[in-house]
Each structure stands twice: as structure tokens, then as C-alpha cells.
Amino acid sequence: MTERTAEVAGAGLAGLTVATALAQRGWQVRVHERGSALREIGAGIFLWENALRAIESIGAFDEATRRGEAIRSWKLYDERGRCIQDDWMKSEDTRLYTVLRTDLHGALANAARDAGVEILTRSNVVGAHEDGRLVIDGGESVSADLVIGADGVFSPVRRALGLDLEVRDLRDGCSRHLIPRLPHDPVNNTLEYWNGARRVGVVPVTPDQVYVYLCCPSGDLAGRRTPLDRGSWKASFPQLASIIDRIPEDARWASFSDVRCHSWVKGRAAIVGDASNAMSPNLGQAACLAITNGYLLAQVLREIESIPDGLLEWQRRQRPVTNATQRYSRLYGRVGTRWPRPAADLRSALVKTAGRSRRWQERVNQAAHAGAQAVRAVSDGAGTPRNTN
Question: In this structure, is residue 299 part of a structural domain?
């Protein structure tokens, strides 16, 4: 069989994963990164079972998690200091690690290079065609058997292919920080605190760092202020004064967005990651699904030789779980940031009741479980190539 070629727009988590998985299956792959160097912006990141299995399968697990923290418990506390959620987002067979985004990105970049992926920097993709062409800034066009847009929320590839449906500002967001880790900070535990429409997460991420996120609605001007209004946040969360005092003042608040598309695929072109399904990070699955979906795209194209048919089958398998996770993440954000303050006790009761429901747990966690099962099937040798022509 002639070696197939792929051109990928974007060298983020999704782009590097799909590029590596394709290259490991015999493809000749080139990734286009508009920046002058590979870099990842952000602080910490949650890696659930689905993403962990994908990065294990491409050989990036050890490097990505070397400095990370295995999380055994995820607890949520309300305004009165009551624990209203205790591990309903985890189960005995679901691993959870927290790592630095830079560590994960570096591990994926190294795996891509080891697989023979060519990475071009200063290569700004501005469009694509369904016949397998990427358009580079300046008018140059590069052709391949497959083109992939992994180029973010405002994806030029998605727009050029006419796949846009909606990019929705969710009217809430957060600032993310890394602070020095002290002996009394949590170990192997993630803690989240709610007070009205504000949320704070405290997440151990390396032996000497803690990842902290401060979430609030876009209308909370004090909450999103730069420099950070420490006094305002300590007034909401006095028990976290030691944490908040360690946060740098140059906090940058960023809004959450949802991306919805008519389709993820068109002809010999596909979009993945934030380009296809950006979502709020409330369930810790935005990046995990980007990684898992990218990995499984390569696997489905190993099973089905016809690229357009394979892309449609990949979308059929992956989109329902992805869309459902996006909806549940959006719901989590609405409950956390838009609930009427006078009814805060009712919110706590509802969250606690939901956490005790096995059916609810399965729905909220379906991305971790379904994705892990799909990757496990690949690892066990499922998926013999077939020709649909």
C-alpha cells in the first residue's frame, strides 16, 4: 500500500496526538504551527482514564506524568464548609492524574518527533479544502490524502470548510495559576470550594507546585480584575487565604466557550479538539477528549481504508459522547455560577443527591469510561484494516 500523507494545522495537544498516532500507523505526517516555536500556554491539566490510555498507547505516558500527581479524591465544599461532593466524578477503575500542561505538551511533541512527524513552525494555516488541501498564509496550498484542523476555538480550517454552527461565549471563565507548594497543601487530593457564583480549585500538580483556578461569571468585575483583587477573593474564601496570598498579581481571566459544528468532517478533511468541540473545563475533559478523539481518528482510518468513509465512522463513534460531555460541563458551570444565592442550600442538597446517584455518575463520567474502553480495544488488537471501496 502506498504511504498515505496527512497535513495537520495546529501543534497543540490534539494536533500532536493525532499526528503521532497516524505516523505510528505508517502515515507521512506534517504539522503546521503558526508560532515561532512549540509552546503550551496554561498551568495544570487533569488527565482522566481516556486520555491516559491514549498517551500510553503513543508512548508519552511516562514523560507526561513523571512529575505529576495521582489524584485519589475529588471533594467539593459549599459556602457553609460542608462537603457536598466526594468522589462521584471518579470510580475505582478510573485513574486521574494532574500534570503541568507544559509537561504534557512536551511529552506529546517528543512522541511526535520519535514517530517521524515533521513539525513546521512559522507556518500559519488560514484555510482548507475538502479535497485534501491546506492553505498557508500567503496563498501557498499544500495537498495530502488527509487534512486536519486542530487549530483552536476560532479555527480557520473549520470556517473555510463551512462547518461552523456556533461559537458561544458561556459568560463565565477563570484565571489559572501555579503557586509554590507548602507542606500543609493537599496531597493526592483535589479540592474545590464554592461561594455563590465563585469557585476556587486547589490541585496538587508537581512535588513543588499547586495548580489553582479562580472561576467567576464575566459580570463579576472584582473577580476577574487584573491585577488580582486578593482582598475580594479572600473575603469570599477566608479559609483559602494562604492559597490566595501565593497567587501572582498578574492574573489573567479568560472566558469559557462552547464550539458547535454542523459536522466534524467534510470529504478528506476533519477538525478535532477545540476546533470541533471546545467546552468549559468544568469536568476536566476538554483536553482529554481532544487527545482521545485525535488518537481514535487515526485508529478508525487504520480500520477503514476509504478516508471519507473512515472520517464519517469516526465522527459517528465519538461525537455522541463528546457532545454529551460538553452539555454536562455546561450544566456544571451553570449550577456553579448562575444559581440564585438565596437558594444556595438547595443547590448543595441537589449536588449531594446527584453525587449519590450511580446513573448520574455514569452519565457525567461517560467520556472517561467510553473513551478508555475504545482505546483499550485498540490496545488489545481490535481493528483489522478493511477496504470499503
Answer: yes
